[in-house]
Write a structure and sequence with these properties.
mainly alpha; 0% strand; 214 residues; homotrimer
Chain lengths: 214, 214, 214
């Protein structure tokens, strides 16, 4: 228990952000399912893919077990309850509202899962570029799987918004801080903060990726 | 060899149901491939995904090897032969007929693979809810993969039929019987029987999942 | 260092073909991404799936680590650079030209990855038919994943061209040469050569798979 007050605050802040981020990712799946008028089963599967798909793919690629959702099974209950509630209470007019509101919690999710995913890969002993790729896969592939199973081209592939690109840049920051001898704890906290801030700026200022000049 | 006659009968009955179920799942892939006018290669891949996709995904998630189709390679030959025969003999008018006829063997497949998948996960040491999720994935994700690769929203996501939901309920029965001290053998046999019966009733009486009221 | 000159030549020839094949597979992803007007992120992901997807799936199924792209991380850089260059320089009129030119390097990729994938599976100790299936998955599933994520029915499923079928036949050749006591080295070299030759003949003479008579 020789944590400083600062570390104590960041630990609980990190957990809070992780919960907020996972909820945001899950909600993005729920909304997609509602748009496509899926039934309870489709909702539960698409919501779960959005929430856990990226981390699960990362863990399969790194050969890590157990998965996040196996270790924190409370999340499966949470998602089942979310789906049941949505089926009863959600109406078409809620969808757009929810999407706009979600930009903030989604940015928390991007930061925490990109920085965290990079650190997990570093700890697993892979090289810097592979760690950064794993850090991008963690927050991005949940959305990719969510879109692929409902027959859409993944938004991450063609919305020209800096999202995965910010995760990529932030991953290098985490790698750099590790090389400078920072603890994994502070590397992730700093990386997550920077990624979230950049993402919020990208949304606020409408930053765009370059497009085809064809 | 201290099996009773009852266990002997159930063992061979189980194997028979497993074969019937796998054939039904494979046929669903074959029909989908025929609808989309895929060639021999597409047929073989879609049929294999429908037959083995769910169990293979479960085993990847549980980190189990070897896969069913690696251990029972006769099935790969069976599928290749089915595809070649279908290409020669199957006509458009067979498709609808086959689909209706398949409701019964498909219900056997649902029962045996949901109950069996749950038991395999329990034996692998996971918690009840995870075991039940694995039991749902086993019979359901073959069909999900089958539909995703041919560019359809998976039928399991939006047909409002109780299918995965019955597998979910039956999984809890298997978990409960295990907790009551029943052998894995009788837990699976009972679970499979109940799931198959519920599924057949769902088909016979046209049970529906609740829909969006939007 | 008791390699003969012949083996030395074939070793470097094999590496050259591997590079050419991977480039061809990556380019097929890049072109698909350009057609769909994906952004930089979508391009990088689709290109990577096309280049590494098949081998990665094979390795997950065989439980092999590390993956090709983890061990040869230079390829990740190569793909990122290819994507950036394409974004700047590629125009619509290049696409068709590139596709026709790619038939040759793609045939090299088919040969080297089908024969190599079969041998890797044999070395992993699986049975002949499973080894041949893994040899088909290696060159074919990159393209399948590439098409599925951008919402197309995989070309491999319905273009009626002998591609996976040639990989299948060539895989049996590799298995047979192994059984005859040939070294893995010469089995792969011979298998790759035969597969590439057959594929080029299929393209040149317009061989077709049988179609539905419905």
């Amino acid at each position: 228990m020789n944590q400083t007050l600062g570390e104590w605050l960041v630990t609980y802040g990190t957990q809070a952000f992780e919960i907020i981020g996972t909820l945001a990712f899950a909600l993005s799946g729920l909304i997609e399912a509602a748009r496509k008028k899926l039934d309870l089963v489709g909702m539960a599967i698409v919501t779960s893919l959005a929430a856990f798909g990226g981390g699960t793919l990362r863990d399969i690629l790194l050969d890590r077990r157990p998965f996040f959702w196996v270790q924190n099974e409370i999340w499966i209950w949470a998602i089942l309850i979310m789906c049941a509630l949505a089926l009863v209470f959600m109406r078409a007019r809620h969808i757009e509202l929810t999407e706009r509101t979600m930009q903030l919690p989604d940015a928390f999710g991007l930061g925490i899962f990109a920085a965290g995913g990079t650190q997990i890969a570093i700890t697993a002993g892979v090289s810097p570029i592979i760690a950064v790729v794993m850090g991008v896969i963690t927050p991005v592939f949940g959305g990719v799987l969510r879109d692929v199973v409902v027959n859409e081209i993944p938004r991450a592939f063609n919305d020209h918004q800096p999202y995965a690109v910010i995760a990529f840049a932030g991953g290098w920051l985490v790698v750099g801080l590790n090389l400078l001898g920072w603890s994994s704890f502070w590397s992730v906290a700093t990386g997550a903060l920077v990624i979230t801030a950049l993402r919020l700026m990208a949304v606020a200022f409408g930053w765009r990726l370059p497009t085809w000049r064809v």
